[in-house]
């Protein structure tokens, strides 16, 4: 597709369950970013990938959060043993090569943990 | 934690009025970005600033990279109803690895006819 796509668009889960969020970046973009946006808040940086490697994982809130990227394309953000405070919109963005290149955002996945 | 202070938090203005918002920090940034987010969508980049003192326009939008490299402002002139949305500043700290951006909490703009 032409833009960044994310799936699912909405996810409701029970506390304690694991969830996987998927991001399909723009074709050819080498850099991929994950952010979390809580209600009424700005974006919180989680992790970014350059190719398949993640030079900076410092934004991941806890060891329940992990992300991977395979083939330099699709990325998956996994949250294990979800907690209610994990409820937020998870946004993915990609850019051509990172650094100061424009980041193009997907529509996000709204996660609700009951 | 949050290193950017964005203000105001919200603005209710009449169509035709000018809007001004800013972001400040105690840290030095080497890049400032301004985004607009509409409901149910991801943020869209409006303006990017790369040099201290840089003043850049995009239509009715004007943004500046502060001389001290610790602040930036965004102005919207002659607002129209479609300017409604949440505007975010984002900056890349001098001390951070590239690719990592800090975001402000956003300024919600509501335009009434």
Descriptive notes:
The complex is a heterodimer of chains A (114) and B (113). With 114 residues, chain A is mainly beta. Helix content of chain A is 0%, strand content 50%. Chain A starts with a strand and ends with a strand. In chain B, a hairpin with a 6-residue loop joins strand 4 and strand 5 (44-49). The model of chain B has no long low-confidence stretch (mean pLDDT 91). The interface between A and B is medium-sized, with 28 and 26 residues.
Q: Which sequence of SSEs, written as H and E, runs from N to C of chain B? A: EEEEEEEEEEE
Order of helices and strands of chain A: EEEEEEEEEEE
Strand residue content of chain B: over 45%
End-to-end separation of chain A: 33 Å
Shape of chain A: globular
Helical proportion of chain A?
under 10%
Summing up helix and strand content along with how strands pair, one would put the structural category of chain B as mainly beta
Mean pLDDT of chain A: 91
What Rg of chain A, in angstroms, do the CA atoms define? 13 Å
Biggest sheet statistics of chain A: 7 strands, mixed
Structural class of chain A: mainly beta
| Cα end-to-end separation of chain B | 38 Å
- Helical residue percent band of chain B: under 10%
Figure out the total of helices of chain B.
0
Mean pLDDT of chain B: 91
Our count of helices of chain A gives 0
Radius of gyration of chain B (CA) equals 13 Å
| Secondary structure: number of strands of chain A | 11
Q: Which stretches of chain B of 5+ consecutive residues score pLDDT under 50?
A: none
Strand content of chain A: over 45%
């Amino acid at each position: 597709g032409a833009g960044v796509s994310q799936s699912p668009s909405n996810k409701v889960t029970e506390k304690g369950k694991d969830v996987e969020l998927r991001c399909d970046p723009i074709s050819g973009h080498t850099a991929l970013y994950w952010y979390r946006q809580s209600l009424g808040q700005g974006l919180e940086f989680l992790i970014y990938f350059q190719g398949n490697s993640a030079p900076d994982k410092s934004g991941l809130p806890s060891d329940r959060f992990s992300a991977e990227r395979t083939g330099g394309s699709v990325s998956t953000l996994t949250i294990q043993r979800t907690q209610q405070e994990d409820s937020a919109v998870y946004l993915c963005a990609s850019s051509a090569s990172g650094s100061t290149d424009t980041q193009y955002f997907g529509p996000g996945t709204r996660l609700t943990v009951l | 934690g949050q290193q950017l202070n964005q203000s105001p938090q919200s603005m209710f203005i009449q169509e035709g009025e000018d809007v001004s918002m800013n972001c400040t920090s105690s840290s030095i940034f080497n890049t400032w970005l301004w985004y607009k987010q509409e409901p149910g969508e991801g943020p869209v980049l409006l303006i990017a600033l790369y040099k201290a003192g840089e003043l850049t326009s995009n239509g009715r939008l004007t943004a500046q990279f502060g001389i001290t490299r610790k602040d930036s402002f965004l102005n919207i002139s002659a607002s129209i109803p479609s300017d409604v949305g949440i505007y975010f500043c984002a900056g890349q700290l001098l001390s951070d690895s590239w690719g990592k951006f800090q975001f402000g909490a956003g300024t919600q703009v509501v335009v009434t006819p």
